[in-house]
Write a structure and sequence with these properties.
Pfam families: ThsB_TIR. This protein has 473 residues and is an alpha+beta fold. The chain has eight helices and 22 strands.
Length: 473
C-alpha cells in the first residue's frame, strides 16, 4: 500500500509534503480567505464547461438570512473565521486558472499562492483527470496546506471509480490498535454529468453548502423558504401593480365618461339651437351624434338631454298649435327675390338680389349648382335682379325670365345647373305651366295694345302655337 500523504511542520516551521518530499514555504492558516474555492480541472471543453458552471453558481449565490459560512472546527467559536464580509451575503470569488500550465516539476508561485488563499478545493473529475499531473499536484498542495476536509469532487463524466483521483479515495485513520493506517474513504462529491441534468440545481446547491461549510439540508430548506418568500413578494407586487392599474384604468374610464357626458350635453344644446333656427336636419344630426348608436353600444353614455333633443327634432311630440315646422334653413348673403321648385319635390332654385342663382336638393337643401344672372342680361351693368323671375316647368326644367326687353329667356337643367337653351331680348309679363309639364304658356303686353300669347315646348324652346290679341287699349 502506498504511503499516505500528510503534512507536518519541520523544525524551521515549513510545511513538509511527505509523498513528494517537498518543503513548502512557511505557512500560517489565514484568518480570512481571498477565494471561496480553487477550481482544479482539465482544460477540456466538457470539464471547462462544468468548471464555469460551478464558478458562476458560487460567485452569484447569496446565502439566505441566518446562514454563516464557517471554517471547519469553528463550531462554538465566537470568533469564527468567515470567507465573506459581515455586510455581504455572497461567498466570494473563485480561482479558476484559464491557462493550460506548461510541463514543470513544481507548481508556479501564483498557483501555490491561490491554493493558500482558497478556503476550499473543487476538483472537476472525469476519466481524463487521472492523466493530469497538475491536478495531482494541486490536490497534494492543498492537502498539505489545509487538509482533506475542504476538498469537493464534482463528477463531469464517467463513474466515480474511474474519475475521482486515487489520492482522494483514501485517508489516514487509526485502526483498533490506534495505529494510523491508510483506509478507504468516500470523498464529498456532486454529480454534474449530462445525464444528471434534472438534479443539476440541487447538486450545485450541495457544492455551495460544502464551500460555505453549512448543513446541506438546512441550506436547502432556507433556500426554499427564501424562494417561497420571493415568490410571495413577487405575487404581492404583481397584485399591487394590478390593483394600481385597475385604479388608473377606472379613473381614466371615469374621466372619459365624464368628458363624453359633457360632450353629449353640448351637442344636445346645439341641436336645440339649430332647431330653433329652422335647421331641423342639422338638429337631427347633432342629436344623433350625442347618443349611442344602439342599445348595445357602450362607447357613449345615454344622456337625457340628447334624447329630448332628438325627440324634438323628429317631431315625436308635435305641437298641435303649430301647423308646420321648418326642415332646414339656408343662409344667403343677399335677399332672395325669386324662388321656384318642381311639383315632385326633387329640387328648388333661388335668385337673390346680387344676381346669384342657386340650385339645391329639396329634401336636404344641399347646393348642387350655381349660375349668375349677369351672364344672360343684355346690359349687366344695369342689372336689376328684382325684374327677373324663376319658374319651374316639367320635372327638371327651370326658366329664367325678365319682365323687361333687355334680357333673355333662359332654360336650365335644374338637376345639373347646365344651360338647355336661351332666347335673347324676350320679356314675359306672365307665365303658366301646362298640366303635361312639357309645355308652358307665355304672355307679353305689346306697346300697340296687343297681348301676345305663345305656347312653347320646354325641352326645345320651339313655339307650338302663337296668337296676338287686340285688347283695344
Amino acid at each position: 500500500m502506498n504511503r499516505p500523504l500528510h503534512h507536518s511542520l519541520s523544525p524551521d516551521g515549513a510545511v513538509h509534503c511527505v509523498r513528494r518530499g517537498e518543503s513548502l514555504p512557511e505557512y500560517e492558516e489565514p484568518s480570512s480567505f481571498t477565494y471561496a474555492a480553487f477550481i482544479s480541472y482539465r482544460h477540456l471543453p466538457r470539464d471547462t464547461e462544468v468548471a464555469q458552471q460551478v464558478q458562476k453558481a458560487i460567485e452569484t449565490y447569496r446565502l439566505p438570512r441566518g446562514v454563516v459560512a464557517k471554517q471547519p472546527g469553528d463550531e462554538g467559536n465566537s470568533a469564527a473565521r468567515s470567507i465573506r464580509s459581515k455586510t455581504s451575503s455572497s461567498l466570494g470569488k473563485c480561482f479558476r486558472d484559464e491557462d493550460e500550465l506548461a510541463a514543470s516539476p513544481s507548481l508556479p508561485d501564483s498557483i501555490q499562492e491561490a491554493l493558500a488563499q482558497s478556503r476550499s478545493l473543487i476538483v472537476v473529475c472525469s476519466p481524463e483527470t487521472q492523466e493530469s499531473a497538475w491536478i495531482q499536484r494541486e490536490i497534494e498542495t492543498f492537502i498539505a496546506l489545509h487538509g482533506r476536509e475542504r476538498i469537493i469532487c464534482v463528477l463531469a463524466a464517467g463513474s466515480s471509480e474511474e474519475s475521482i483521483p486515487p489520492i482522494l479515495k483514501t485517508r489516514m485513520m487509526p485502526d483498533a490498535a490506534g495505529i494510523m493506517r491508510e483506509m478507504p474513504a468516500e470523498p464529498l462529491a456532486a454529480d454534474l454529468r449530462p445525464e444528471s441534468k434534472n438534479k443539476r440545481k440541487a447538486e450545485l446547491l450541495r457544492i455551495i453548502a460544502a464551500v460555505a461549510n453549512c448543513n446541506y439540508d438546512d441550506l436547502r430548506r432556507r433556500h426554499r423558504n427564501r424562494k417561497r418568500r420571493l415568490i410571495t413578494a413577487a405575487a404581492f407586487a404583481i397584485l399591487a401593480l394590478i390593483a394600481l392599474i385597475s385604479v388608473l384604468v377606472h379613473q381614466t374610464a371615469r374621466s372619459s365618461e365624464e368628458a363624453l357626458i359633457a360632450e353629449s350635453k353640448y351637442l344636445a344644446a346645439r341641436s336645440q339651437e339649430q332647431l330653433a333656427r329652422g335647421e331641423r336636419l342639422q338638429a337631427i344630426q347633432s342629436a344623433l351624434d350625442a347618443l349611442p348608436s344602439s342599445e348595445a353600444d357602450r362607447s357613449r353614455p345615454l344622456v337625457p338631454e340628447a334624447q329630448e333633443a332628438l325627440e324634438n327634432a323628429l317631431l315625436v311630440y308635435p305641437d298641435p298649435d303649430q301647423t308646420w315646422r321648418p326642415l332646414y334653413a339656408i343662409d344667403s348673403d343677399s335677399d332672395i327675390v325669386s324662388v321656384a321648385h318642381d311639383v315632385d319635390g326633387d329640387w328648388f332654385a333661388t335668385l337673390n338680389d346680387s344676381g346669384l342663382i342657386e340650385f339645391r336638393s329639396l329634401s336636404k337643401g344641399a347646393l348642387t349648382a350655381t349660375a349668375h344672372l349677369g351672364d344672360y342680361a343684355e346690359h349687366p351693368e344695369e342689372l336689376t335682379p328684382s325684374e327677373w323671375s324663376l319658374e319651374a316647368t316639367g320635372d327638371r326644367h327651370l326658366l329664367l325670365m325678365s319682365q323687361q326687353a333687355n334680357g333673355s329667356m333662359v332654360c336650365f337643367d335644374a338637376l345639373t345647373g347646365t344651360l338647355v337653351w336661351e332666347h335673347e331680348q324676350v320679356c314675359a309679363d306672365s307665365f303658366a305651366s301646362a298640366q303635361d309639364e312639357d309645355t308652358f304658356g307665355l304672355t307679353t303686353f305689346m306697346g300697340d295694345g296687343n297681348l301676345d300669347v305663345a305656347v312653347i315646348d320646354a325641352a326645345t324652346s320651339n313655339v307650338r302655337e302663337c296668337q296676338s290679341l287686340d285688347l283695344g287699349v
